[in-house]
Specification:
The protein is α/β, with parallel strands linked by helices. Strands 1, 5, 6, 7, 8, 9, 12, 13 and 16 form a nine-stranded mixed β-sheet that branches. A three-stranded antiparallel β-sheet has the order 2-4-3. The radius of gyration is 23 Å and the shape is globular. This is DUF1501 domain-containing protein.
Length: 420
């Protein structure tokens, strides 16, 4: 007897979670998954895409205070010349590798929040990232992530995975961990296409036999190994079947993503999933390499080039497909870099840095106050915007979840979204 649609949705067996639970699916699961995929209506909802810059992005060479004497004096080798800066106003501008961001700013699709940080800053990669991911400035690495807490409170269409983590190497980020929702990780759509079809080889046959043997037993109780097997198998197959069918019915328009950038390929996958009609509301990915203690000039320029080019391609893809109005992108790093350059042509761990919000729903321009490089604490600029204000704004005004319930306190909202 096949699982009913109600039973499958009760188990969270939707059409998009893409868990890699094994390369094969028993026939009875395949039939049920096909039925669910065929019966699942598309549901258009708001989406948040998070891009985590790992290593500590040098905010001062990203949003450059090119007129500031202290900036040039403290960075005699690393300061970006004023003539190369992509000027936003008469005080600050973008790194020359962020020309795609400058174009997005002209198109009113880029909001720059200056001087973002938190009280009593922590310069440890792991500790500071845990603070950003849990939204708790008192370090608690065991706390559920802020997005995990948000997903647990979210109401909406049943079936699809509420969140997806997109990366081939990084583990599930703390922001999505610890909640009641299952948030799968995946790397490439091709992995799941290869899982479709009849299995081959003795090992695949043995796996099918084992799953069929389990399937003939009583349904698993919540949390049991049997329920886990049912859930993983159905999600994997239903997701693949649904995406394959959608691509047959509605071939994807060619999008201009640079093939040599890993971030671009991950964002292209996210765009495919969005255009496929999944009801997933949170997508999360990474760009690493920002721990620029030495040789920073070329390394940082290359990273910012990848970031800007990839995100512009992503937003152009969404605009072409008619999905742009329902997607906001958040770009953050665990901390900035110190004002002083070091002796190795780089910068060390700092504190405050800019955060970016991108997309048609944002209120474009500069937000917050420029960093005051004459007012330092332990050699670092002092933040003027608490990062939890950005989270609060996204929760209240984008995801429509009361931020006090998630963050545990009230924070002043920022005018970074249209209508705010």
């Amino acid at each position: 007897m096949h699982p009913t649609r109600r039973e499958m949705l009760r188990l969270g067996l939707g059409s998009s979670a893409l868990l890699a639970c094994g390369p094969t699916v028993p026939l009875f699961l395949a039939r049920s998954a096909h039925a669910l995929a065929d019966d699942r209506p598309d549901a258009k909802g708001r989406i948040l895409v998070v891009v985590q810059l790992d290593g500590g992005n040098d905010g001062l060479n990203t949003v450059v205070p090119y007129r500031d004497d202290a900036y040039r004096q403290r960075r005699p080798k690393l300061a970006i010349p004023a003539g190369e800066v992509l000027k936003i106003n008469d005080r600050v501008g973008l790194h020359p590798s962020l020309e795609p961001f400058a174009k997005l700013l002209e198109q009113e699709q880029l909001a720059i929040v200056q001087g973002v940080g938190y009280p009593n800053p922590n310069r440890s990669h792991f500790d500071s990232m845990a603070i950003w991911q849990t939204a708790k400035t008192k370090l608690d690495k065991a706390a559920p992530g802020w997005l995990a807490r948000a997903l647990d409170r979210q109401t909406g269409p049943d079936g699809d995975a509420a969140g997806l983590h997109i990366h081939e190497a990084f583990p599930l980020p703390g922001a999505l961990s610890g909640g009641r929702q299952v948030v799968p990780s995946m790397a490439r759509l091709e992995q799941f296409r290869r899982r479709l079809g009849m299995p081959q080889g003795a090992e695949a046959a043995a796996q099918i036999e084992a799953l069929d043997r389990l399937a003939r037993q009583e349904r698993g109780t919540p949390g049991s190994p049997l329920q886990f097997v049912e859930r993983c198998s159905l999600i994997t197959y239903a997701s693949s079947a649904r995406l394959e069918q959608i691509q047959k019915d509605r071939p994807a328009a060619k999008a201009d993503y640079p093939e040599f950038y890993g971030l671009a390929q991950r964002l292209q996958l996210i765009a495919q999933l969005i255009k496929a009609g999944l009801t997933t509301s949170i997508y999360y990915t990474h760009l690493d390499g920002f721990d620029t203690h030495s040789g920073q000039l070329s390394q940082h320029a290359n990273l910012l080039g990848e970031l800007g080019t990839s995100l512009r391609a992503f937003l152009n893809d969404l605009k072409t497909s008619g999905e742009a109005e329902r997607v906001v992108v958040l770009v953050f790093s665990e901390f900035g870099r110190r004002l002083n350059e070091n002796g190795s042509g780089g910068t060390d761990h700092g504190t405050a840095a800019p955060v970016f919000l991108l997309g048609q729903p944002v209120k474009a321009g500069l937000h917050g106050s420029p960093l005051d490089l004459t007012r330092l604490e332990d050699g670092d600029p002092i933040h003027s915007v608490d990062f939890r204000q950005i989270y609060a704004t996204l929760l209240d005004r984008w995801l429509q979840i009361p931020h006090r319930d998630i963050l545990g306190a009230g924070f002043e909202l920022l005018p970074v979204l249209q209508g705010s």
